[in-house]
Amino acid sequence: MKLSRSPSVAPLLAAFAALVPVQAEAHILKGEAVGFVSGFLHPISGADHVIAMVAVGLWGAQLGQPAIWLLPVTFPLIMAVGGFLGLVGFPLPGSEIAIALSGVCLGAAVLLELRPPLWVAAALVGMFGLFHGYAHGSELPPGQNALLYSLGFVMATGLLHATGIAIGTVHRWPWGRIVLRGAGGVVLSGGLMFLWSALT
Amino acid sequence: MKGRLTALVVTALVLPQAAEAHLVVSGMGPLYDGISHFGLSPEDFLPVIAFGLFAGLCGKAQARWSLLAFVPSWIAGGVAAMAGVALAPMSISIVTAAIFLIVGGLLALNRALPPAWSAGVAALLGALRGLADLSGIAASAAHGLALAGMALGGFVLFALAVSITLPLQRLWMIVAARVGGSWLAALGLLLVGWVVRYGPVIH
């Protein structure tokens, strides 16, 4: 209270505040964490994307070498092509139906333990990856840090595949094969549900 | 009351604001500013890690020659930028996307290059990153030290990445490195899309 009555304190405070040194920073990393987090959350925020990407890992684990790593490599690469097409505004109609179909087809492949030639499996996964990437690319919000957003986006996709592969390791045990096929059934059911809502 | 109001107005007017220039100032000196810039810039450290992993997978000769070519090229690129050979923001974005695509693609494919080719790609990577990082920066002793810090950070990370893959024998470890390469290539492709849609996205 004494402070407010003293006429000499206010200019002194002003002088102190004015002379407080502030660090000169360049290349400030503004909003970088937001960019990474939004990119990371984007693929895992839609259940239709999640079930398909986990199913890629499940199917790869079921098929064994070299599909176990070839399918999860194919998917993000072709997905990035789809993302590119979405970003540049290339028209690709029916992407929502194709995304739902990816859950149906990949779920059915795991449920029935289908073993097509490797190139057929890679082509199927790549084709669905294209539509998933397209949907993401056309929804990318402006104003984000492009590099960190894309980094989070690719990492989340890869980690969803890794989750599928990790679950798929149960395939080595007889009971695990049944569990894995059951997981395929869950993916198939989810895909059918999304297909129904995409068509209606 | 009037005196206090005047003091508040004067304070608001003369309060110092952060001067946002180009390089991050860590307060530890320009050498450490360069190291921290390298460590905080994914466009710098991601391709260095990826190419280090690739060079290690190729073999000892490729790893040695790449490491030798990489650091001087980074410094040469930075010196050229400070001398006025600056890249425009659009070019920096395109160069970054292209580097991600090429280096990520090489790691994902895992086809061994001859030592001379491997060293050539390392030299190109170093020169372009040095050029991009120092574009628009005036030549000075402090910026020279910052450049040395970046090159030092690059050297250490490159050597560490090489040391991971050079002795790799287990298939799953090689597969993990190749999967990482495919992620980087995908990142490059997405960046191309960002550049086409929004223009220069990396400065």
Number of helical runs of chain B?
8
Distance between the termini of chain A: 71 Å
Overall average residue pLDDT of chain B: 84
* Average pLDDT reading of chain A: 82
Query: Structural class, judged by helices and strands of chain B?
Result: mainly alpha
Structural class of chain A: mainly alpha
Helix and strand run of chain B: HHHHHHHH
Biggest sheet of chain A, in brief?
A: none
Q: Please tell me the total number of domains of chain A.
A: 1
In helices, the fraction of residues of chain B equals over 70%
Largest sheet of chain B: none
User: How many structural domains of chain B?
Assistant: 1
What is the C-alpha radius of gyration of chain A, as a whole number of Å? Answer: 25 Å
Report the principal-axis shape of chain B. Answer: globular
What is the CA-atom radius of gyration of chain B, in angstroms? 20 Å
Which keywords apply here?
heterodimer, A: 200 residues, mainly alpha, B: 203 residues, 0% strand
Write up what this structure looks like.
The complex is a heterodimer of chains A (200) and B (203). Chain A is mostly helical. Chain A has one domain (48-199). Chain A has helices at residues 2-5, 9-19, 32-44, 47-63, 67-88, 95-111, 118-139, 146-168, 174-199. In chain A, helix 4 packs antiparallel against helix 9 (174-199) and helix 6 runs antiparallel to helix 9. Chain A is elongated, with a radius of gyration of 25 Å. Chain B is mainly α and 203 residues long. Chain B contains 8 helices and no strands. Chain B has helices spanning 2-14, 30-40, 42-58, 60-82, 89-109, 115-134, 141-165, 171-198. The longest helix of chain B is centred in the last third of the chain and has 28 residues, at 171-198. Chain B starts with a helix and ends in a 5-residue tail after the last helix. The model of chain B is unreliable at 15-21 (pLDDT under 50). At the A-B interface, helix 2, helix 5 and helix 8 of A face helix 1, helix 3 and helix 8 of B.
